[in-house]
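Supplementary Note 3. Input sequence used for the single-chain structure prediction.
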Amino acid sequence: MRPTTLLALLALVLLYLVSGALVFRAFEMPKEQQAQSSLGKTRENFLRAHPCVNLSALQAFIEEVANDLSMGADPRDLTNVSRTAWNLGSAFFFAGTIITTIGYGNMVLLTDEARIFCIFYALVGIPLFGMLLAGVGDKLGSSLRRGIGHVEAIFLKWKVQPALVRSLSAMLFLLVGCLLFVLAPMFAFRYIEGWSSLEALYFIIVTLTTVGFGDYVAGTKPEQFPAYQPMVWFWILMGLAYFASILTMIGNWLRVVSARTRAEMGDLTAHAASWTGTVTARMTQRAGPDARGPEPPLPEKPSSGPPPTPPAKPGAGPSSLEEKPPSSAPTSSVSAPLDYPGENFAFIDESSDTQSERGSVLPRSRRAGLKQPRKPARPRHSRHGPDKRELA
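The predicted structure, written as discrete structure tokens, is reproduced below.
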């Protein structure tokens, strides 16, 4: 990530935090001031009703009660001293909140021995739970996708477009997960805990996002059966696995989209290179003879009589005095245009030189001073006999 992108992302996160802080402050500060005013009025009413009580003694009593309540004491049953919040079910739930990193905070450790043990317990348990969460999320996502695959097959039989089927399957995956891990537990918490729909939904989202404020915790009532909190922990496990599978699916989708985009860009580059090669080859084919300059004018043929013969060279035999007229039509294999987009440019230039050589009808004596064309890579065999280099 580039530094400018990182700074822009940091600025966006800070702006998001400041805006959230302002909104939470605007909503919560009046409620806190109202509670503080209510506590002050309650203390004044108590002192007015009991003038024998000292103000400092009452203040110390209130602070001690608040401290005991924060330690887990229950003010509703002060006579039952043997009552404890650390039964097997609640202790199991507390250990589960450690390794899931939720940490509600409604139950805290008071002894140094328990705090030391909690340090090592968290360091071992959090990675262990991460591996379990990945495995359960994989199996859960595979089961849900397998069931949704049958629905996709039905849509494909109905001749629905594949892109629409993929969108519908993703929406169905999200809908089934929300139904199993959000809506059904919301009604269960409303019935068991006595919460409203908003409170139950608030607890579900705060729990499954591992925020865990602790203002709402399931299973804190003493009249509930002991296995209730372990069942809530297993719901937390499945819900976190579902959200992990959603994140995995989104990551896989992004990787597929990125790979498909790179493949499409590669195909587009290949098509552009092929088109450029085709156009360049055809332009070179058409402009080849003109690039070598205009051809010399053709000799005028006499109206009648045999064609003129060039003067004989001294010492030449009678066979050298006769010159066969060159063929007026070039070979069809050379004069045919090249329509292959992948041909080599050297082959195209060689074909153009050969075509211009064979298309010229100048006598050999006049063509001797012209620039000879480039020789081909492989020797050509004459139709009238073998090559002199082969004889040598």
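The radius of gyration is 46 Å. Residues 228-291 form the longest helix (64 residues).
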